[in-house]
Amino acid sequence: MLRIAVPNKGSLSDAARETLIEAGYRQRRDSKELVFVDPDNSVEFFYLRPRDIAIYVAKGTLDAGLTGRDLFLDAQVGDAAEELMALGFARSTFHFAAPSGAFTSVAELAGKRIATSYDGLLSDYLKSSAIDTNKIVHLDGAVESSVKLGVADAIADVVETGSTLKAAGMEIFGEPILRSEAILIGQTGKHPAGLDKLIQRLHGVLVAREYVMVDYDVPRAHMEAALKVTPGLESPTISPLADDDWVAVRSMAKKKDMNRIMDELYEMGAKAILASAIHAIRL
Ligand SMILES: Nc1ncnc2c1ncn2[C@@H]1O[C@H](COP(=O)(O)OP(=O)(O)OP(=O)(O)O)[C@@H](O)[C@H]1O
Ligand SMILES: O=P(O)(O)OC[C@H]1O[C@H](OP(=O)(O)OP(=O)(O)O)[C@H](O)[C@@H]1O
Ligand SMILES: [Mg+2]
């Protein structure tokens, strides 16, 4: 059985669960269950703190896991585990922040105290940019309060919308330390049975989320121009209609371009333009 780690709570867990279900795997029904077997797919799921998942995978106890890129790098497991694919949810950036106006550049952090929950990630960054800070103050959460409460001069933390920082009267400075999202990790260089299928299915889910199926009827005279707007992934399907002057076209298109494409097709004289959701894709 393939042994896969899944976040048990927090920002990653709901989306990880939905993604696995969309990929055709069964998931636990009760949030108290620690292990769940999906016999049809020969997979055993282990529900763990996302922060710990890299440790289990790097040790070889589990074959693969869903976690955050920032959490993976923070765990400092070296080459034992690797990122296999990005999953597109739980996006965030890891940033330095301080009370508004206190710092303008990262170089000013020399000799200062920085609070964070991601010590490994922060110390790697400081080493690589040769900044000699006073110390890293480890906190489990609510890092934004640390400066006001006098235990640090600046923070390094996860920023999603920025509203937590704003509410604390802080702002980011310097370049992002890391852009993070949920990822699938595996043991470096290992290909246990079932892993390729998991990757293919997850890939299918991500593509299905990103694309819509566009169908329309267009006068044969405008078909060439319409196909330029909907070139599809491989090649669009063209079907004859009862009226010889018209054809029906079916093509995949990026969801974010959907309305622009529909407008352009309409202006070219296309009719019955439909965009529908795709539930799963195997390319
Ligand atoms: N608004 C957010 N807050 C926290 N983590 C976020 C947010 N948006 C995305 N993430 C990502 O989710 C992962 C953190 O998940 P985790 O479950 O450890 O934290 P959490 O949701 O803050 O839970 P808790 O603090 O209760 O342990 C990281 O990869 C992080 O980049
Ligand atoms: O940019 P935002 O959308 O405001 O999100 C980022 C905030 O959310 C997380 O905190 P969380 O609520 O998990 O509390 P914690 O600090 O106790 O983990 C994170 O640590 C930031 O503080
Ligand atoms: Mg948190």
From TrEMBL:
Cofactors demanded by this protein: Mg(2+)
Gene3D superfamilies, per database record: 3.30.70.120, Periplasmic binding protein-like II (3.40.190.10)
Catalysed reaction equations from the record: 1-(5-phospho-beta-D-ribosyl)-ATP + diphosphate = 5-phospho-alpha-D-ribose 1-diphosphate + ATP
Activity regulation, short description: Feedback inhibited by histidine.
GO (cellular component) term, any one: cytoplasm
GO molecular function: ATP binding; ATP phosphoribosyltransferase activity; magnesium ion binding
GO biological process, one term: L-histidine biosynthetic process
Lineage: Bacteria, Bacillati, Actinomycetota, Actinomycetes, Micrococcales
Keyword set, alphabetical order: Amino-acid biosynthesis, ATP-binding, Cytoplasm, Glycosyltransferase, Histidine biosynthesis, Magnesium, Metal-binding, Nucleotide-binding, Transferase
Cross-referenced HAMAP family: HisG_Long (MF_00079)
Biological or metabolic pathway of the protein: Amino-acid biosynthesis; L-histidine biosynthesis; L-histidine from 5-phospho-alpha-D-ribose 1-diphosphate: step 1/9
Main function: Catalyzes the condensation of ATP and 5-phosphoribose 1-diphosphate to form N'-(5'-phosphoribosyl)-ATP (PR-ATP). Has a crucial role in the pathway because the rate of histidine biosynthesis seems to be controlled primarily by regulation of HisG enzymatic activity.
InterPro entries associated with the record: ATP-PRT_HisG_long (IPR020621), ATP_PRibTrfase_cat (IPR013820), ATP_PRibTrfase_CS (IPR018198), ATP_PRibTrfase_HisG (IPR001348), HisG_C (IPR013115), N-reg_PII-like_a/b (IPR011322), N-reg_PII/ATP_PRibTrfase_C (IPR015867)
Family: Belongs to the ATP phosphoribosyltransferase family. Long subfamily.
Domain Histidine biosynthesis HisG C-terminal: 208-279
Protein name: ATP phosphoribosyltransferase
E.C. numbers: 2.4.2.17
Principal location: cytoplasm
Cellular compartments annotated: Cytoplasm
Boundaries of every ATP phosphoribosyltransferase catalytic domain copy: 49-203
Pfam families: HisG, HisG_C
